[in-house]
Write a structure and sequence with these properties.
With 239 residues, the chain is mainly alpha-helical. The protein has one domain. Helix content is 78%, strand content 0%. It has eleven helices and no strands. Helix 2 packs across helix 5, helix 3 packs across helix 9 and helix 6 packs antiparallel against helix 8. The protein is globular, with a radius of gyration of 20 Å. The two termini are 25 Å apart.
Length: 239
């Protein structure tokens, strides 16, 4: 945010370089966490290893209900990497003097595009180009000319949904904290920190579960498409 003090902004200025610097900071933090978790692996985990194993187990459990355990494990690297990046990016914005990279639409748009292109790639790889795009035409052939452009727009809207939901919520949280710190900079913001931490986790969860949902829709067979419920996507879209 222009005019708001940040440590890295004082060095690099309040422009794109500041966001790049915060992005690099997030990468450094993630690499440090991974290094701490893997430097001395044990059969009975403790410390950072225990936390990371619990996180990965939670990601698999999340995907198991959406896409099945086998595919949840297959897509674990993508979803877990997105999750830890989004959470760390969201969380550092809660610390005064730092700004969330996810409060920049360029960052969230790239994340959304990665998910968008990857789930289409997986869908085409699993079903073939013709069979995959045949699902876009709906079950009734006579309505195919109407359904196909609607489905295309529906998939394109996912880019907007993923990127703007994350960007808008994180930007709003940063503005809320900024105003609160200006008005009552000491005791009053403490409950707000807990609330903003919850929102940081919530937005991370939503991005991860939607990634699993989109992957599930892309790699499902005809029978799976008929059985697969849609309320998850509808519910997440409303959040």
């Amino acid at each position: 945010m222009e005019g708001v003090f940040t440590y890295l902004g004082a060095i690099f200025g309040h422009g794109q370089m500041m966001f790049v610097a915060h992005l690099i900071l997030v990468v450094i933090i993630i690499l440090a966490i991974v290094k701490m978790a893997t430097k001395s692996l044990r059969a009975v985990p403790n410390g950072t290893q225990n936390v990371m194993e619990a996180y990965l187990g939670g990601v698999i459990a999340m995907g198991k209900d959406v896409i099945g355990e086998e595919l949840a494990r297959k897509y674990l690297p993508l979803v877990a990497a997105i999750g830890i990046f989004v959470f760390v990016s969201n969380f550092i914005g809660i610390i005064p003097g730092f700004e969330s990279p996810t409060s920049n639409i360029n960052i969230t748009l790239v994340l959304a595009l990665v998910v968008f292109f990857y789930y289409h790639y997986e869908g085409i790889k699993k079903n073939g180009v013709v069979h995959y795009f045949a699902h876009f035409m709906g079950p009734v052939k006579i309505l195919a000319p109407l359904m196909f452009p609607i489905e295309i727009l529906s998939h394109l809207s996912r880019i907007v949904s993923l990127s703007f939901r994350l960007f808008g919520n994180v930007k709003g949280d940063d503005l809320f904290l900024w105003v609160l710190l200006m008005l009552v900079p000491y005791i009053a913001p403490l409950p707000a920190y807990a609330l903003l931490t919850f929102f940081a986790v919530l937005q991370t969860f939503i991005f991860m579960i939607l990634t699993y949902v989109y992957l599930a829709g892309a790699v499902a067979t005809d029978v799976e498409h008929e059985k697969a419920p849609n309320p998850i996507a509808d519910t997440m879209g409303a959040v």
